[in-house]
Amino acid sequence: MRLVSAFVPIWILTALGYAACRWGLLGETGASVLGRFVFHLAMPSALFLALSRMPLSGLAGRSLLAFGVSTAAVVGLGWVSASRLFGREPGERPIWGMAAGYVNSANLGIPIATQVLGDVAFLAEVVLLQVLVVTPVILVALDRHRDPAGRVRVRRIASLPVRNPVILASLLGVACSAAGLQLPSAANASLALLSGAAVPAALVALGASLHGTTSSRAEPAELAVITALKLVVQPVIAYAAGLAMHLSAPQLLAVVVCAGLPTAQNTFIFAQEYGVGETVANRAVMMTTTLSLATLAAVAALLG
């Protein structure tokens, strides 16, 4: 029941977004506007506050390395599968990789880590790894494919942190954490209000996007592969890497549980912002979130 309680708010907010769009409460562009709000304002605020308060010493250790190995392997497998198995366009492949290997470390990760692991210490390291390493790689790839010629422009890539609010907020948060800086109370309170809207707005936007997308291409075979990579292959690789690195039983449980978290809704937000792979992204988020209740319970039972 404790695991179920972590999933219920996600299902409710997503269903509300779908219903609001179906009943015309959000207008024709409601999902798009909500997505842009999350990407440009709410998500950067949440990332800045989280990283500015997080000690950076956590980015070390065998546990994080084992998780990183599983993430790199599965993101790479998803990226290649999108091209080799399903003929996805280059701009869609980063979204495929992200859907396969980028875990929901925030609104699902925190309650699950608290209930299954007893604390969120390792999850904080996972957040840092995803935000500081995985997110920039995905966004650089998406930005490259937005270029009409599909070329890697050094000047454009170098300016990405300034042009992309997610990367900019993350870098500023890390800088504040490293320097021990604190914002004035008014600025901190304003960012806290914005960050509080990130998760619910993203879930409502996700639900709204599910309405009216039946004509878009999202093959069942694609969703099956993404779901298998996310919920089976990534935890198995994490387990194998953890064993190879001689992790203790609690460390191994933390690594496998975090690797088995479902696809983050950020995947859909990024897909929507760049206009690629939106249908695959929202279906993957919903499918993995629904099925991960069973797979995470199995992991907890086997390794707990």
Automatic annotation (TrEMBL):
GO terms for cellular component: plasma membrane. This is Membrane protein. It is found in: Cell membrane. The keyword Membrane applies. Keywords: Cell membrane, Membrane, Transmembrane, Transmembrane helix, Transport. One of its GO terms (biological process) is transmembrane transport. It is a multi-pass membrane protein. The keyword Ribosomal protein does not apply. Belongs to the auxin efflux carrier (TC 2.A.69) family. The chain crosses the membrane at residues 29-51, 63-82, 120-142, 162-183, 189-211, 223-245, 251-271, 283-303. It holds the Pfam family Mem_trans.
